[in-house]
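Tutorial handout. Part one gives the primary structure; part two gives the three-dimensional structure as tokens.
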Amino acid sequence: MAILVTGAAGFIGAAVCERLLARGEQVVGVDNLNAYYDPALKQARLQRLAAQAGARGWTFHQLDIADGAAMAELFAAVRPRAVIHLAAQAGVRYSLENPGAYVQSNLVGMGHVLEGCRHQQVEHLVYASSSSVYGGNRNLPFNERQPVNFPVSL
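Part two.
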């Protein structure tokens, strides 16, 4: 069974996919390939992953996690045993300029990932977020046990 990685064309997502492929996992990558970061860099990462995987182990789907029907279809087709959710709209300053992009990706998209996991009975979900969720917390370094009641962005 495959591991589904959202945000697979991003810097961290591609590195995670590389490691999974290196250990022999079947990996299904998802990314919308938006232009917030250079699409040429994303394409280069995807080409590197395809070359590493050869004819086995790697599948890529260009889709937006905010597209509920597409995500449900993908989850049903792949039936992943695990999901590593890294897709998100980045940039705290950009969230102030375009909050709708954040709502769609970081809230609606996250909901679709969670629903896909629930409906397909995914064994494990790993979710990475931004340090921005710690908001005005002044206790450094941040850790998972700290309250996140006042994030600075979505």
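Part three, for discussion. Helices lie at 11-22, 39-53, 68-78, 92-97, 99-119. The two ends are 32 Å apart (CA to CA).
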